[in-house]
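To close the section, here is one more complete example, presented without commentary so you can practise reading it yourself. The ligand is beta-D-fucopyranose.
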Amino acid sequence: MSNPYHPPAVGVLDQGPELIFPPGFLWGAATAAYQIEGAATEGGRTPSIWDTFSHTEGRVVAGHTGDVACDHYHRMPSDVRLMAELGLKSYRFSVSWPRVQPGGSGPANAAGLDFYRRLVDELLGHGIEPWLTLYHWDLPQPLEDAGGWPARDTAGRFAEYAELVADALGDRVTYWTTLNEPWCSAFLGYGSGVHAPGRSDGADAVRAGHHLMLGHGLAVQALRASRPQAQLGITVNLYPVTPASDAPADVDAARRIDALANRFFLDPVLRGSYPTDLAADLREVTDFGHVRDGDLAVISTPLDLVGVNYYSRHVVAAPVEGAEPEPYWRAPSCWPGSEDVRFVTRGVPVTDMNWEIDAPGLTETLRRVHEEYTDLPLYVTENGSAFVDAVVDGQVDDVDRLAYFDAHLRAAHEAINAGVPLRGYFAWSLMDNFEWAWGYTKRFGMVWIDYDSQARIPKSSARWYAEVIRRNGLAAQ
Ligand code: FCB
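Output:
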Protein backbone atom coordinates (compact mmCIF):
# COMPACT_ATOMS: atom_id res chain seq x y z
CA MET A 1 0.00 0.00 0.00
CA SER A 2 1.70 3.23 -1.09
CA ASN A 3 -0.24 5.67 1.07
CA PRO A 4 -1.47 4.09 4.30
CA TYR A 5 -4.11 6.80 4.67
CA HIS A 6 -5.67 6.12 1.29
CA PRO A 7 -5.85 2.37 0.77
CA PRO A 8 -7.31 1.57 -2.62
CA ALA A 9 -9.96 -0.83 -1.32
CA VAL A 10 -11.08 -2.55 1.84
CA GLY A 11 -10.06 -5.99 0.60
CA VAL A 12 -6.42 -5.00 0.22
CA LEU A 13 -6.04 -4.84 3.98
CA ASP A 14 -7.02 -8.50 4.14
CA GLN A 15 -3.84 -9.83 2.56
CA GLY A 16 -0.97 -11.54 4.31
CA PRO A 17 -0.61 -13.43 7.57
CA GLU A 18 -2.67 -12.28 10.48
CA LEU A 19 -1.45 -10.05 13.32
CA ILE A 20 -3.14 -11.71 16.28
CA PHE A 21 -4.08 -10.03 19.56
CA PRO A 22 -3.90 -11.80 22.94
CA PRO A 23 -6.75 -14.19 23.78
CA GLY A 24 -9.69 -12.44 25.40
CA PHE A 25 -8.71 -9.03 24.01
CA LEU A 26 -11.70 -6.77 24.67
CA TRP A 27 -12.85 -5.36 21.33
CA GLY A 28 -15.36 -2.59 21.73
CA ALA A 29 -16.81 0.69 20.61
CA ALA A 30 -17.58 3.76 22.67
CA THR A 31 -20.22 6.48 22.88
CA ALA A 32 -21.29 9.07 25.47
CA ALA A 33 -24.73 9.88 26.83
CA TYR A 34 -25.14 13.48 25.68
CA GLN A 35 -23.70 12.69 22.28
CA ILE A 36 -26.24 9.98 21.36
CA GLU A 37 -29.21 9.68 23.72
CA GLY A 38 -31.45 12.66 22.93
CA ALA A 39 -34.67 12.55 25.00
CA ALA A 40 -33.28 15.55 26.83
CA THR A 41 -36.44 16.25 28.81
CA GLU A 42 -37.89 12.75 29.11
CA GLY A 43 -38.05 10.37 32.05
CA GLY A 44 -37.33 13.06 34.61
CA ARG A 45 -34.01 14.17 33.11
CA THR A 46 -33.02 17.75 33.94
CA PRO A 47 -30.51 19.99 32.12
CA SER A 48 -26.78 19.47 32.27
CA ILE A 49 -24.16 22.10 31.45
CA TRP A 50 -24.18 20.80 27.86
CA ASP A 51 -27.91 21.48 27.49
CA THR A 52 -27.40 25.04 28.69
CA PHE A 53 -24.26 25.54 26.60
CA SER A 54 -25.67 24.12 23.37
CA HIS A 55 -28.81 26.21 23.77
CA THR A 56 -26.71 29.37 24.15
CA GLU A 57 -26.32 31.18 20.86
CA GLY A 58 -22.89 31.00 19.29
CA ARG A 59 -21.53 28.16 21.41
CA VAL A 60 -22.08 25.18 19.10
CA VAL A 61 -21.69 25.20 15.32
CA ALA A 62 -25.02 25.85 13.57
CA GLY A 63 -26.82 25.98 16.92
CA HIS A 64 -26.89 22.18 17.13
CA THR A 65 -27.95 20.62 20.44
CA GLY A 66 -28.17 17.12 21.90
CA ASP A 67 -31.96 17.34 22.29
CA VAL A 68 -32.52 14.49 19.84
CA ALA A 69 -29.00 13.40 18.86
CA CYS A 70 -29.14 9.77 17.62
CA ASP A 71 -32.38 9.16 19.50
CA HIS A 72 -30.59 6.26 21.15
CA TYR A 73 -32.81 6.59 24.23
CA HIS A 74 -35.71 5.30 22.13
CA ARG A 75 -33.75 3.07 19.78
CA MET A 76 -31.52 1.38 22.33
CA PRO A 77 -32.65 -2.24 21.74
CA SER A 78 -32.05 -2.06 17.99
CA ASP A 79 -28.74 -0.26 18.55
CA VAL A 80 -27.63 -3.12 20.80
CA ARG A 81 -28.70 -5.61 18.11
CA LEU A 82 -26.49 -3.71 15.68
CA MET A 83 -23.57 -3.98 18.14
CA ALA A 84 -24.19 -7.73 18.34
CA GLU A 85 -24.23 -8.00 14.53
CA LEU A 86 -20.84 -6.29 14.46
CA GLY A 87 -19.61 -8.81 17.01
CA LEU A 88 -18.60 -6.24 19.64
CA LYS A 89 -17.26 -7.89 22.79
CA SER A 90 -17.82 -4.77 24.84
CA TYR A 91 -19.67 -1.47 24.66
CA ARG A 92 -18.45 1.64 26.47
CA PHE A 93 -21.28 4.03 27.29
CA SER A 94 -21.69 6.82 29.80
CA VAL A 95 -24.44 7.38 32.32
CA SER A 96 -26.10 10.78 32.19
CA TRP A 97 -25.85 12.22 35.69
CA PRO A 98 -28.93 14.48 35.32
CA ARG A 99 -30.95 11.52 34.05
CA VAL A 100 -30.32 9.35 37.09
CA GLN A 101 -30.03 12.09 39.71
CA PRO A 102 -31.94 15.12 38.43
CA GLY A 103 -30.40 18.34 39.61
CA GLY A 104 -27.28 16.52 40.83
CA SER A 105 -28.35 15.88 44.41
CA GLY A 106 -30.96 13.94 46.33
CA PRO A 107 -32.45 10.55 45.58
CA ALA A 108 -32.08 8.57 42.40
CA ASN A 109 -34.61 8.90 39.59
CA ALA A 110 -35.99 5.40 39.03
CA ALA A 111 -36.96 6.07 35.41
CA GLY A 112 -33.43 7.24 34.60
CA LEU A 113 -31.80 4.24 36.23
CA ASP A 114 -34.25 1.93 34.47
CA PHE A 115 -32.98 3.06 31.10
CA TYR A 116 -29.45 1.97 32.03
CA ARG A 117 -30.72 -1.25 33.63
CA ARG A 118 -32.44 -2.10 30.38
CA LEU A 119 -29.35 -1.16 28.38
CA VAL A 120 -27.10 -3.34 30.53
CA ASP A 121 -29.55 -6.27 30.40
CA GLU A 122 -29.82 -5.93 26.64
CA LEU A 123 -26.01 -5.94 26.35
CA LEU A 124 -25.56 -8.94 28.63
CA GLY A 125 -28.33 -10.75 26.78
CA HIS A 126 -26.28 -10.37 23.60
CA GLY A 127 -23.02 -11.42 25.28
CA ILE A 128 -21.63 -7.87 25.20
CA GLU A 129 -19.65 -6.71 28.24
CA PRO A 130 -20.97 -3.36 29.52
CA TRP A 131 -18.25 -0.76 30.22
CA LEU A 132 -19.70 2.09 32.23
CA THR A 133 -18.31 5.63 32.37
CA LEU A 134 -19.79 7.68 35.18
CA TYR A 135 -18.96 11.14 33.88
CA HIS A 136 -18.65 12.12 30.25
CA TRP A 137 -18.99 15.88 30.76
CA ASP A 138 -22.69 16.33 31.55
CA LEU A 139 -22.59 18.03 34.95
CA PRO A 140 -26.10 18.76 36.27
CA GLN A 141 -26.71 22.49 35.77
CA PRO A 142 -27.55 23.23 39.45
CA LEU A 143 -24.08 21.97 40.43
CA GLU A 144 -22.53 24.37 37.94
CA ASP A 145 -24.70 27.15 39.36
CA ALA A 146 -23.26 26.28 42.77
CA GLY A 147 -19.70 26.71 41.46
CA GLY A 148 -19.13 23.74 39.16
CA TRP A 149 -15.90 21.75 39.22
CA PRO A 150 -13.82 24.68 40.53
CA ALA A 151 -15.88 24.25 43.73
CA ARG A 152 -14.68 21.51 46.07
CA ASP A 153 -18.19 20.39 46.97
CA THR A 154 -18.74 19.05 43.45
CA ALA A 155 -16.23 16.26 44.15
CA GLY A 156 -18.35 14.98 47.05
CA ARG A 157 -21.51 15.21 44.95
CA PHE A 158 -19.88 13.10 42.29
CA ALA A 159 -19.05 10.35 44.80
CA GLU A 160 -22.68 10.33 46.01
CA TYR A 161 -23.90 10.02 42.44
CA ALA A 162 -21.41 7.17 41.86
CA GLU A 163 -22.91 5.31 44.81
CA LEU A 164 -26.43 5.68 43.43
CA VAL A 165 -25.34 4.18 40.13
CA ALA A 166 -23.38 1.41 41.86
CA ASP A 167 -26.43 0.50 43.95
CA ALA A 168 -28.51 0.12 40.82
CA LEU A 169 -26.04 -1.46 38.39
CA GLY A 170 -23.22 -2.84 40.51
CA ASP A 171 -24.61 -6.36 40.40
CA ARG A 172 -24.30 -6.56 36.61
CA VAL A 173 -21.53 -4.18 35.52
CA THR A 174 -17.92 -5.27 36.04
CA TYR A 175 -16.00 -2.45 34.33
CA TRP A 176 -16.34 1.08 35.71
CA THR A 177 -14.46 4.21 34.76
CA THR A 178 -15.09 7.34 36.76
CA LEU A 179 -14.22 10.29 34.52
CA ASN A 180 -13.78 10.64 30.82
CA GLU A 181 -10.90 12.97 29.94
CA PRO A 182 -10.71 15.28 32.95
CA TRP A 183 -8.32 17.49 30.95
CA CYS A 184 -11.18 18.43 28.62
CA SER A 185 -13.64 19.02 31.47
CA ALA A 186 -11.16 21.27 33.26
CA PHE A 187 -9.21 23.05 30.55
CA LEU A 188 -11.75 23.26 27.72
CA GLY A 189 -14.69 23.81 30.09
CA TYR A 190 -13.12 26.34 32.46
CA GLY A 191 -9.91 27.45 30.67
CA SER A 192 -10.58 28.18 27.00
CA GLY A 193 -14.34 27.93 27.43
CA VAL A 194 -14.89 26.15 24.11
CA HIS A 195 -16.72 23.40 26.00
CA ALA A 196 -19.48 23.66 28.60
CA PRO A 197 -19.85 25.48 30.88
CA GLY A 198 -17.86 27.92 28.73
CA ARG A 199 -15.92 29.69 31.46
CA SER A 200 -12.47 31.08 30.87
CA ASP A 201 -10.21 31.41 33.87
CA GLY A 202 -6.87 29.64 34.25
CA ALA A 203 -7.04 29.31 38.03
CA ASP A 204 -10.55 27.86 37.80
CA ALA A 205 -9.37 25.34 35.22
CA VAL A 206 -6.60 24.17 37.55
CA ARG A 207 -9.00 23.97 40.48
CA ALA A 208 -11.50 22.09 38.33
CA GLY A 209 -8.81 19.58 37.37
CA HIS A 210 -8.02 18.96 41.03
CA HIS A 211 -11.63 18.57 42.10
CA LEU A 212 -12.37 16.25 39.20
CA MET A 213 -9.53 14.01 40.38
CA LEU A 214 -10.70 14.31 43.98
CA GLY A 215 -14.20 13.26 42.87
CA HIS A 216 -12.61 10.35 41.01
CA GLY A 217 -10.75 9.20 44.13
CA LEU A 218 -13.80 9.51 46.36
CA ALA A 219 -15.93 7.64 43.83
CA VAL A 220 -13.35 4.83 43.59
CA GLN A 221 -13.39 4.49 47.38
CA ALA A 222 -17.20 4.37 47.43
CA LEU A 223 -17.39 1.87 44.59
CA ARG A 224 -14.66 -0.30 46.06
CA ALA A 225 -16.51 -0.46 49.38
CA SER A 226 -19.85 -1.42 47.86
CA ARG A 227 -18.63 -3.51 44.90
CA PRO A 228 -15.35 -5.24 45.77
CA GLN A 229 -15.45 -7.34 42.58
CA ALA A 230 -15.68 -4.36 40.23
CA GLN A 231 -12.81 -3.41 37.93
CA LEU A 232 -12.26 0.31 38.52
CA GLY A 233 -10.39 2.90 36.52
CA ILE A 234 -10.29 6.32 34.94
CA THR A 235 -9.99 7.45 31.32
CA VAL A 236 -7.42 10.11 30.50
CA ASN A 237 -6.71 11.66 27.10
CA LEU A 238 -2.98 11.63 26.48
CA TYR A 239 -0.73 13.11 23.82
CA PRO A 240 2.94 12.59 23.12
CA VAL A 241 4.38 16.10 23.23
CA THR A 242 7.38 16.60 20.96
CA PRO A 243 9.58 19.68 20.70
CA ALA A 244 9.73 21.17 17.19
CA SER A 245 13.56 21.21 17.41
CA ASP A 246 16.38 20.36 19.79
CA ALA A 247 16.66 24.01 20.81
CA PRO A 248 16.45 24.20 24.62
CA ALA A 249 13.55 26.68 24.44
CA ASP A 250 11.50 24.26 22.30
CA VAL A 251 12.36 21.37 24.59
CA ASP A 252 11.18 23.47 27.52
CA ALA A 253 7.93 24.34 25.72
CA ALA A 254 7.31 20.60 25.24
CA ARG A 255 8.00 19.98 28.92
CA ARG A 256 5.42 22.62 29.90
CA ILE A 257 2.67 21.32 27.63
CA ASP A 258 3.40 17.73 28.66
CA ALA A 259 2.98 18.78 32.29
CA LEU A 260 -0.41 20.38 31.62
CA ALA A 261 -1.76 17.80 29.18
CA ASN A 262 -0.48 14.53 30.63
CA ARG A 263 1.37 14.68 33.95
CA PHE A 264 -1.26 16.97 35.55
CA PHE A 265 -3.45 13.86 35.77
CA LEU A 266 -1.09 10.89 35.56
CA ASP A 267 1.10 11.99 38.45
CA PRO A 268 -1.61 12.62 41.07
CA VAL A 269 -3.68 9.56 40.09
CA LEU A 270 -0.83 7.07 39.70
CA ARG A 271 1.89 8.57 41.94
CA GLY A 272 0.00 10.62 44.49
CA SER A 273 1.77 13.92 43.76
CA TYR A 274 1.70 16.87 41.39
CA PRO A 275 4.78 17.32 39.20
CA THR A 276 7.01 19.97 40.76
CA ASP A 277 7.67 21.70 37.43
CA LEU A 278 3.91 22.10 36.90
CA ALA A 279 3.51 24.06 40.12
CA ALA A 280 6.44 26.28 39.10
CA ASP A 281 5.00 26.87 35.60
CA LEU A 282 1.62 27.81 37.10
CA ARG A 283 3.11 30.18 39.71
CA GLU A 284 1.40 33.21 38.19
CA VAL A 285 -1.90 31.38 37.82
CA THR A 286 -2.45 29.67 41.16
CA ASP A 287 -0.69 28.85 44.41
CA PHE A 288 -2.45 25.45 44.60
CA GLY A 289 -4.10 26.64 47.81
CA HIS A 290 -7.12 24.53 46.85
CA VAL A 291 -5.14 21.32 47.50
CA ARG A 292 -5.79 20.12 51.05
CA ASP A 293 -3.87 17.64 53.16
CA GLY A 294 -4.94 14.13 52.28
CA ASP A 295 -6.35 15.00 48.86
CA LEU A 296 -3.54 13.33 46.95
CA ALA A 297 -3.92 10.13 48.98
CA VAL A 298 -7.59 10.03 47.97
CA ILE A 299 -6.79 10.86 44.35
CA SER A 300 -4.24 8.04 44.17
CA THR A 301 -6.57 5.38 45.61
CA PRO A 302 -5.44 2.15 43.91
CA LEU A 303 -7.14 1.25 40.63
CA ASP A 304 -7.57 -1.93 38.60
CA LEU A 305 -7.00 -0.45 35.16
CA VAL A 306 -6.22 2.72 33.26
CA GLY A 307 -8.12 3.88 30.16
CA VAL A 308 -6.22 5.87 27.55
CA ASN A 309 -7.89 7.96 24.86
CA TYR A 310 -5.58 8.68 21.97
CA TYR A 311 -6.14 10.85 18.91
CA SER A 312 -2.99 12.73 17.95
CA ARG A 313 0.36 14.26 18.95
CA HIS A 314 1.27 17.79 19.99
CA VAL A 315 4.41 19.26 18.42
CA VAL A 316 5.31 22.51 20.12
CA ALA A 317 7.80 25.35 19.94
CA ALA A 318 8.87 28.22 22.13
CA PRO A 319 7.33 31.66 21.66
CA VAL A 320 9.01 33.92 19.10
CA GLU A 321 9.19 37.67 19.14
CA GLY A 322 7.41 39.54 16.39
CA ALA A 323 5.56 38.09 13.42
CA GLU A 324 4.19 34.57 13.56
CA PRO A 325 5.76 32.31 10.97
CA GLU A 326 3.25 30.02 9.24
CA PRO A 327 2.09 27.33 9.92
CA TYR A 328 2.39 27.98 13.64
CA TRP A 329 -0.41 28.98 15.93
CA ARG A 330 -0.37 30.11 19.54
CA ALA A 331 -1.69 27.90 22.28
CA PRO A 332 -5.16 29.06 23.22
CA SER A 333 -6.15 29.72 26.80
CA CYS A 334 -6.62 26.04 27.58
CA TRP A 335 -2.92 26.04 28.55
CA PRO A 336 -2.82 28.39 31.56
CA GLY A 337 0.59 29.92 32.14
CA SER A 338 1.84 28.59 28.79
CA GLU A 339 -0.33 30.57 26.38
CA ASP A 340 2.73 31.68 24.42
CA VAL A 341 3.77 28.19 23.43
CA ARG A 342 3.22 27.59 19.72
CA PHE A 343 1.68 24.40 18.35
CA VAL A 344 3.39 23.35 15.13
CA THR A 345 1.64 21.72 12.22
CA ARG A 346 3.93 19.36 10.37
CA GLY A 347 2.07 19.03 7.09
CA VAL A 348 1.28 15.34 7.59
CA PRO A 349 -2.22 14.01 6.75
CA VAL A 350 -4.95 15.27 9.05
CA THR A 351 -8.51 14.20 9.86
CA ASP A 352 -11.59 16.38 9.39
CA MET A 353 -10.87 17.79 12.88
CA ASN A 354 -7.52 18.96 11.50
CA TRP A 355 -5.84 16.58 13.93
CA GLU A 356 -2.61 15.13 12.59
CA ILE A 357 -2.68 11.37 12.01
CA ASP A 358 0.12 9.87 14.07
CA ALA A 359 -0.29 6.17 14.76
CA PRO A 360 3.21 5.68 16.25
CA GLY A 361 2.13 8.18 18.91
CA LEU A 362 -0.26 5.55 20.24
CA THR A 363 2.54 3.03 20.77
CA GLU A 364 4.62 5.76 22.40
CA THR A 365 1.77 6.82 24.69
CA LEU A 366 0.92 3.30 25.85
CA ARG A 367 4.58 2.48 26.45
CA ARG A 368 5.04 5.65 28.44
CA VAL A 369 2.12 4.95 30.77
CA HIS A 370 3.34 1.41 31.33
CA GLU A 371 7.06 2.12 31.56
CA GLU A 372 6.91 5.33 33.60
CA TYR A 373 3.76 4.91 35.66
CA THR A 374 2.11 1.57 36.18
CA ASP A 375 1.90 -2.17 35.67
CA LEU A 376 -1.90 -1.99 35.64
CA PRO A 377 -3.81 -3.35 32.65
CA LEU A 378 -4.33 -0.62 30.06
CA TYR A 379 -7.24 -0.18 27.68
CA VAL A 380 -7.53 2.16 24.74
CA THR A 381 -10.94 3.54 25.70
CA GLU A 382 -11.16 5.82 22.64
CA ASN A 383 -9.39 6.11 19.32
CA GLY A 384 -10.86 7.19 16.03
CA SER A 385 -11.20 9.86 13.39
CA ALA A 386 -13.64 12.24 11.74
CA PHE A 387 -13.77 12.28 7.98
CA VAL A 388 -16.25 13.69 5.50
CA ASP A 389 -18.41 10.70 4.58
CA ALA A 390 -21.05 10.32 1.91
CA VAL A 391 -23.81 7.84 1.25
CA VAL A 392 -23.46 6.48 -2.27
CA ASP A 393 -25.97 3.86 -3.40
CA GLY A 394 -26.92 3.26 0.19
CA GLN A 395 -23.29 2.58 1.23
CA VAL A 396 -20.65 4.62 3.08
CA ASP A 397 -17.18 3.63 1.96
CA ASP A 398 -15.07 5.34 4.62
CA VAL A 399 -11.64 4.18 3.49
CA ASP A 400 -9.81 6.93 5.38
CA ARG A 401 -11.38 6.01 8.71
CA LEU A 402 -10.78 2.34 8.07
CA ALA A 403 -7.10 3.04 7.37
CA TYR A 404 -6.87 5.16 10.52
CA PHE A 405 -8.19 2.26 12.62
CA ASP A 406 -5.92 -0.19 10.84
CA ALA A 407 -2.80 1.92 11.46
CA HIS A 408 -3.66 2.51 15.11
CA LEU A 409 -4.43 -1.14 15.78
CA ARG A 410 -1.03 -2.02 14.36
CA ALA A 411 0.44 0.57 16.72
CA ALA A 412 -1.49 -0.96 19.62
CA HIS A 413 -0.19 -4.40 18.68
CA GLU A 414 3.35 -3.03 18.64
CA ALA A 415 2.84 -1.76 22.18
CA ILE A 416 1.75 -5.25 23.25
CA ASN A 417 4.88 -6.70 21.63
CA ALA A 418 6.90 -4.17 23.62
CA GLY A 419 5.44 -5.54 26.85
CA VAL A 420 2.48 -3.23 27.47
CA PRO A 421 -0.40 -5.09 29.20
CA LEU A 422 -2.97 -3.71 26.77
CA ARG A 423 -6.21 -5.63 27.29
CA GLY A 424 -8.70 -3.95 25.00
CA TYR A 425 -9.51 -1.31 22.41
CA PHE A 426 -12.65 0.79 21.96
CA ALA A 427 -13.24 2.50 18.65
CA TRP A 428 -14.58 6.03 18.84
CA SER A 429 -17.30 5.93 17.90
CA LEU A 430 -19.93 3.29 17.38
CA MET A 431 -22.03 5.81 15.49
CA ASP A 432 -21.90 9.40 14.23
CA ASN A 433 -23.02 11.72 17.00
CA PHE A 434 -23.08 15.19 18.55
CA GLU A 435 -19.41 16.17 18.43
CA TRP A 436 -19.58 18.79 21.20
CA ALA A 437 -18.80 22.33 19.96
CA TRP A 438 -18.83 20.97 16.38
CA GLY A 439 -22.39 19.69 16.64
CA TYR A 440 -23.30 17.16 13.96
CA THR A 441 -20.81 18.57 11.46
CA LYS A 442 -18.07 16.06 12.34
CA ARG A 443 -18.64 12.35 11.84
CA PHE A 444 -16.59 9.88 13.88
CA GLY A 445 -18.92 6.88 13.60
CA MET A 446 -18.38 3.41 12.20
CA VAL A 447 -22.13 3.57 11.66
CA TRP A 448 -23.61 6.42 9.63
CA ILE A 449 -26.53 8.26 11.16
CA ASP A 450 -29.09 9.95 8.92
CA TYR A 451 -30.19 12.68 11.32
CA ASP A 452 -33.48 13.22 9.46
CA SER A 453 -34.70 9.64 9.38
CA GLN A 454 -32.47 8.24 12.17
CA ALA A 455 -31.52 5.42 9.80
CA ARG A 456 -28.31 3.60 10.69
CA ILE A 457 -25.92 2.45 7.95
CA PRO A 458 -22.80 0.49 8.97
CA LYS A 459 -19.89 2.01 7.05
CA SER A 460 -17.07 -0.01 5.46
CA SER A 461 -15.02 0.53 8.63
CA ALA A 462 -17.73 -1.18 10.70
CA ARG A 463 -17.75 -4.24 8.47
CA TRP A 464 -13.97 -4.33 8.49
CA TYR A 465 -13.89 -3.98 12.31
CA ALA A 466 -16.38 -6.84 12.63
CA GLU A 467 -13.92 -9.00 10.71
CA VAL A 468 -11.00 -7.85 12.89
CA ILE A 469 -12.98 -8.86 15.96
CA ARG A 470 -14.03 -12.17 14.44
CA ARG A 471 -10.44 -13.26 13.90
CA ASN A 472 -9.01 -11.35 16.87
CA GLY A 473 -6.48 -9.68 14.66
CA LEU A 474 -5.64 -8.07 11.36
CA ALA A 475 -3.60 -8.71 8.32
CA ALA A 476 0.13 -7.96 8.35
CA GLN A 477 1.38 -5.53 5.73
C1 FCB B 1 -12.93 12.87 22.92
C2 FCB B 1 -14.25 12.74 23.66
C3 FCB B 1 -15.34 12.11 22.85
C4 FCB B 1 -15.30 12.54 21.40
C5 FCB B 1 -13.92 12.39 20.83
C6 FCB B 1 -13.80 12.77 19.39
O1 FCB B 1 -12.21 13.93 23.45
O2 FCB B 1 -14.08 11.98 24.83
O3 FCB B 1 -16.56 12.38 23.46
O4 FCB B 1 -15.78 13.82 21.29
O5 FCB B 1 -13.01 13.16 21.58
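Once you have examined the C-alpha coordinates, check your reading against these statements. The first strand starts at residue 18 and ends at 20. The chain has a mean pLDDT of 95.
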